[in-house]
Amino acid sequence: MFDDEKIKEGVRLILEGIGEDVNREGLLETPDRVAKMYHELAAGYSDDAKEHLSKRFHVDNSDIVMEKDIYFYSLCEHHMLPFYGKAAIAYIPNGEVVGLSKIARTVEVYARRLQIQEQLTNQIADAFMKELNCKGVMVHIEAEHMCMTMRGIKKPGSKTVTVVKRGAFEDEKLENTFYRMLG
Fold first, then answer.
1. For the residues 23-44, what does the mean pLDDT come to?
2. Is 117 one of the catalytic residues?
3. Is 145 considered catalytic here?
4. How far is the C-alpha of 40 from the C-alpha of 174, rounded, in Å?
């Protein structure tokens, strides 16, 4: 899927476009480094949440499961600048729970793509509903966007919060329980 040569050529063009000498010692390996970096930052395109959410364990209850403070890094699809923060996911099992590390891996699947936070929040919730067939899910993401802090309006420290509720979490009582658990 990745075309390293196109990435390297693009980086060379950007360097030239901003007036840099692509043959300067400090920049000679920059196109290679950036190509390698994008393999990591955009790894979500070759990953599937279904794979991670398929490792399940039987349970006899329907108690809320929450994983919070899941730190992530993503790239804004509008400026290709990072946004980063933390996610909290709670779901109500329907006879099965997923391994706890798989919750964080699901966040990574979608965060490791060119993304907007609103879509990221929805994709995570939809994956849980579809793959786990859970009774409900709630996803809360709080992130700082470098396109807001280092360019444009330049408001460091500002945070964007997105919340998605599905299924049983549409109930105000369960939503309030989520926020109490979130702390």
1. 97
2. yes
3. yes
4. 37
16 given a catalytic annotation: no
Look-up of token digits 């933390």? 86
pLDDT band at 1; cut points 50, 70, 90: confident
Residues pairing with 73 in the sheet: 84
**Dihedrals φ, ψ of 28, to 5°?**
-55, -40
Whole-model pTM: value is 0.95
Which residue out of 52, 67, 108, 117 is catalytically annotated?
A: 117
Residue type, 168: A
Tell me whether residue 9 is one of the annotated catalytic residues. Answer: no
The Cβ of residue 20 has, within 10 Å, a number of other Cβ atoms equal to 14
The SS3 assignment for 158 reads coil
For residue 146, what pLDDT band results from cuts at 50, 70 and 90?
very high
What is residue 143's DSSP assignment?
E
Distance CA 161, CA 180 (A): 17
Q: Is the dihedral of CA 123, 86, 83, 162 positive or negative?
A: positive
Mean predicted lDDT score pLDDT of the chain: 97
- Distance, CA of 96 to CA of 55 (rounded, Å): 10
Q: Which of 52, 67, 76, 140 is catalytic?
A: 76
Q: Residue 126 carries which side chain, given as an amino acid letter?
A: D
User: Known catalytic residue: 96?
Assistant: no
Checking if the pLDDT of 91 tops 90, the result is yes
